Amino acid sequence: MKIKEGVHIPGLKIQMRKTLSIADKIWHNLGQELVITSALDGTHSAGSLHYYGFAVDLRTRYFTPQQKEQARQALSKALGKAYDVIAHPSHIHVEYDPK
Q1: Contact at 8 Å (CB) between 56 and 24?
Q2: CB 46 within 8 A of CB 12
Q3: Phi then psi for 87, rounded to 5 degrees?
Q4: pLDDT > 90: what percent of the chain?
Q5: Among the residues of 1-99, which ranges form H helices?
Q6: Tens digit of pLDDT for each residue in 50-64?
Q7: Which of 30, 49, 63, 89 could form a disulfide bond with 54, CB atoms 3.0-4.6 angstroms apart?
Q8: Domain locations in the chain?
Q9: Non-local CB neighbours of 55 within 8 Å, separated by 6+ positions
Q10: In this structure, which topology does domain 2-96 adopt according to CATH?
Protein backbone atom coordinates (compact mmCIF):
# COMPACT_ATOMS: atom_id res chain seq x y z
CA MET A 1 0.00 0.00 0.00
CA LYS A 2 1.19 3.48 -0.88
CA ILE A 3 0.07 6.89 0.24
CA LYS A 4 0.22 9.60 -2.41
CA GLU A 5 2.53 12.46 -1.47
CA GLY A 6 0.62 15.13 0.44
CA VAL A 7 -2.15 12.83 1.61
CA HIS A 8 -2.88 13.30 5.31
CA ILE A 9 -3.98 10.14 7.15
CA PRO A 10 -3.35 10.96 10.83
CA GLY A 11 -6.80 11.29 12.36
CA LEU A 12 -8.35 8.72 10.03
CA LYS A 13 -11.01 6.92 12.06
CA ILE A 14 -10.64 3.24 12.95
CA GLN A 15 -13.55 2.32 10.67
CA MET A 16 -11.51 3.52 7.69
CA ARG A 17 -8.44 1.49 8.69
CA LYS A 18 -10.57 -1.61 8.07
CA THR A 19 -11.32 -0.25 4.59
CA LEU A 20 -7.64 0.10 3.76
CA SER A 21 -6.78 -3.42 4.88
CA ILE A 22 -9.56 -4.96 2.80
CA ALA A 23 -8.89 -2.73 -0.23
CA ASP A 24 -5.20 -3.61 -0.14
CA LYS A 25 -6.06 -7.30 -0.54
CA ILE A 26 -8.57 -6.63 -3.34
CA TRP A 27 -6.14 -4.44 -5.29
CA HIS A 28 -3.40 -7.06 -4.83
CA ASN A 29 -5.73 -9.76 -6.18
CA LEU A 30 -6.31 -7.54 -9.23
CA GLY A 31 -2.55 -7.16 -9.77
CA GLN A 32 -2.16 -3.58 -8.53
CA GLU A 33 -0.77 -1.82 -5.51
CA LEU A 34 -3.30 0.19 -3.53
CA VAL A 35 -2.65 3.94 -3.57
CA ILE A 36 -4.54 6.23 -1.20
CA THR A 37 -5.08 9.50 -3.08
CA SER A 38 -7.04 11.44 -0.45
CA ALA A 39 -8.06 11.17 3.19
CA LEU A 40 -8.23 14.21 5.50
CA ASP A 41 -6.49 16.41 2.94
CA GLY A 42 -7.64 18.25 -0.17
CA THR A 43 -10.78 20.15 -1.04
CA HIS A 44 -14.08 18.32 -0.91
CA SER A 45 -17.75 19.26 -0.91
CA ALA A 46 -19.20 21.00 2.13
CA GLY A 47 -19.89 18.48 4.89
CA SER A 48 -17.70 15.83 3.26
CA LEU A 49 -16.83 12.95 5.55
CA HIS A 50 -13.20 13.37 4.42
CA TYR A 51 -12.95 16.28 6.85
CA TYR A 52 -14.02 14.07 9.77
CA GLY A 53 -11.76 11.12 9.04
CA PHE A 54 -14.54 8.91 7.71
CA ALA A 55 -13.66 8.85 3.98
CA VAL A 56 -10.81 7.91 1.66
CA ASP A 57 -10.21 7.93 -2.08
CA LEU A 58 -8.42 5.01 -3.72
CA ARG A 59 -6.65 5.16 -7.09
CA THR A 60 -8.18 3.21 -9.97
CA ARG A 61 -6.65 4.74 -13.12
CA TYR A 62 -4.66 1.56 -13.82
CA PHE A 63 -7.79 -0.65 -13.83
CA THR A 64 -9.89 -1.52 -16.84
CA PRO A 65 -13.54 -0.47 -16.43
CA GLN A 66 -14.39 -4.09 -15.60
CA GLN A 67 -11.64 -4.37 -12.97
CA LYS A 68 -12.70 -1.07 -11.42
CA GLU A 69 -16.28 -2.31 -11.07
CA GLN A 70 -15.02 -5.63 -9.73
CA ALA A 71 -12.97 -3.77 -7.10
CA ARG A 72 -15.94 -1.57 -6.19
CA GLN A 73 -18.29 -4.50 -5.81
CA ALA A 74 -15.82 -6.60 -3.81
CA LEU A 75 -15.08 -3.70 -1.47
CA SER A 76 -18.76 -2.89 -1.01
CA LYS A 77 -19.61 -6.52 -0.25
CA ALA A 78 -16.72 -6.92 2.20
CA LEU A 79 -17.44 -3.68 4.09
CA GLY A 80 -21.20 -4.03 4.35
CA LYS A 81 -24.09 -1.59 4.47
CA ALA A 82 -22.48 0.92 6.84
CA TYR A 83 -20.09 1.96 4.06
CA ASP A 84 -20.75 3.77 0.78
CA VAL A 85 -18.41 2.69 -2.04
CA ILE A 86 -18.71 5.00 -5.05
CA ALA A 87 -16.83 4.80 -8.35
CA HIS A 88 -15.66 8.15 -9.73
CA PRO A 89 -13.73 8.61 -13.00
CA SER A 90 -10.28 8.57 -11.37
CA HIS A 91 -10.86 6.82 -8.05
CA ILE A 92 -13.15 4.90 -5.75
CA HIS A 93 -14.50 6.92 -2.84
CA VAL A 94 -15.25 4.99 0.36
CA GLU A 95 -16.98 6.49 3.37
CA TYR A 96 -18.25 5.14 6.65
CA ASP A 97 -21.84 6.35 6.75
CA PRO A 98 -24.10 4.15 8.88
CA LYS A 99 -27.76 4.89 8.28
Answers
A1: no
A2: no
A3: -85, 125
A4: 77
A5: 14-29, 65-79
A6: 878 899 999 999 999
A7: 49
A8: 2-96
A9: 16, 39, 44, 48, 49, 93, 94, 95, 96
A10: Muramoyl-pentapeptide Carboxypeptidase; domain 2 (3.30.1380)
